[in-house]
Amino acid sequence: MEKLQELNDAKDRFFSILGHDLKNMFHNIIGFGDLLKDDIKLGNIKTIEEDVRVINSAAEMLLSLLLLGTNAQRGNLLFKPCLLVLNEMVNEVVDEIYEIAIRKDIKLKMTIPENLK
Length: 117
What we know:
Elements: H1 2-42, H2 45-74, H3 86-103
Helix pairs in contact: 1-2
């Protein structure tokens, strides 16, 4: 019975994290959609292209997360731990929010050792 409770707790944590990540992806899509509307009014092609790129990227990530959740619920989720370079992961996230930060006059500074795994 204790093992069942541990598995249930792990499932709940997983879906809590998944829900949080899904919410963030929706915020990215909605936020950049709003920026896109403003950029269309201004006719700024460069920022329009960037807005569309970020929206597309967020939508692809959203789809991946939804498929991950579906596979987890069906019990088809494979656990394949691997080392990741934290700096690379953080750079990907920063790249996604960089344009929003600039437009809001927010400076981003990252201080992560180069090959931290």
